Amino acid sequence: MANPPASVMLMGPPPIPDPSPTVKPQEPWRENLSMHLICKDCKEDPPNLVEDFSAGDTICGSCGLVLGDRIVDTRSEWRTFTNDDQNNDDPSRVGDGANPLLNGAQLQTTIAFSGGGSARARDLSRAQNRATHDKAAKTLLAAYKEIQAWCDGMRIPKNGSDTAKHLFKITQDEGAFRGKSQETVIAGCIFIACRQCKVPRTFREVFSITKVSKPEIGRIFKQLEKFFGERNEKLKASIIESGGVPVENGTGFANVESTTPKDLCNRFCNQLHLSQKCTVMSQDIASKTETTGVLAGRSPISTAAACIFMASNLAGEGRSAKDISQVAGVSDGTIRNAYKIMYQRKEELVKPEWIVDGRADFKKLPPL
Hints:
The chain is mainly alpha-helical. The protein contains 13 helices and 3 strands, in the order βββααααααααααααα. It has helices at 119-131, 135-153, 158-174, 182-196, 203-210, 214-241, 261-271, 276-292, 300-314, 321-328, 332-344, 346-349, 352-356; strands spanning 49-52, 57-60, 66-69. 23% of the residues are buried. The model has no long low-confidence stretch (mean pLDDT 81).
C-alpha cells in the first residue's frame, strides 16, 4: 500500500473540550460567632475587658482604652426600700401587674401597718385607706371571689372563669340589671361563659352550685344574651363609622348555639371512666339522634345519657343506667325510656363498619 502524499493531512475526531468549572453556590450570610473584641493597642487574646455600666462603656482593663459605648445594663435592679429596717432581702423590681378586670390605673400606694407600729403609722394607714377607698372596686373584687368559688365547684377551667368575670364587669360598667340580685347575674354570666369556652354546663348544674332557681337562670340568660348582642351591634357600628374594621369577637361576646347532646358526652364519659373509643362512639350516636330526630323533644342531658348507655354496652364497657344517672343528673327511668326508642332504630344510629370490624356488637345490648 502506498504512503499518502505529505501534503495530505488525515482528519481525526475533534478534541474533547475541557469541562467548565462548576460554580459553587453562594452561602447565605450568617454572623461569625468566633469574632470577639480585642484592644487594638494591647492586642491581648483573650482580651481584658471591663464593662462600666454606670457610664455605659466597654474599657480595656490593661491600658484604659474605651472600646465601646452605650452598652445595655442587663443586670437585675434589686433595689427596694420595703425592708430596709428589717435587714431582709426583697428582690422585687416592679409592682404587681395591672388587673384588666379592675378599673383605674391601679398605681396607688399602700401604707402598711403592723401590730408593733407606732400610733402615727396607724393613723397614716387609716387616713390612706379612707382616701383611696373605692367602693366599686371592692364590689367587683367580692363578685370575682364568688365567681371563682362557683367555677371551682363546677370544675370550670380558668378561661371560663375569666370570661365570666369579664362579662360581669361589662354589666357593672354599663349599669344594667340593677334590679336583679348579684347572684342571679353571676349565675347567668357563668352559664354564658361556659358556652363560649366550649365547656357547657346545664341549668341543673349551675343551680346546684349557685342556688339560683332554674327558671330564674333561664330568664337572666335570655336577658343577658339580648343585652350583649345589642351592645355588640352598637360597638360594631361605631367602629365602622370611624373608618375601622370590626374584629370578630373583639367585643368579648359571641353568640353561640344551644348545648347539644354531643357537647355533653365527652364530659360525662370522662366522669364514668370510659375509653376514648366509647366516647367517640357515643358522640357519633348523639349526632345521629339529632339528624334523624329519634329523640326529638327530649332534653340534651337525657339524650346524651341514653347515647352513653347504648355506646358503653356496644363497646363492651357497659355502665348501668343508675351509674349514668348519678353523673348526668337524670333519673335512670328516663334513660331507659329513651334507650327503648333508640333500640328500635339501632341500625340507623350505629355505623355498619363498627359491626364489621368488631368494635361494636348488637348482641351486647341489653334487651328491652
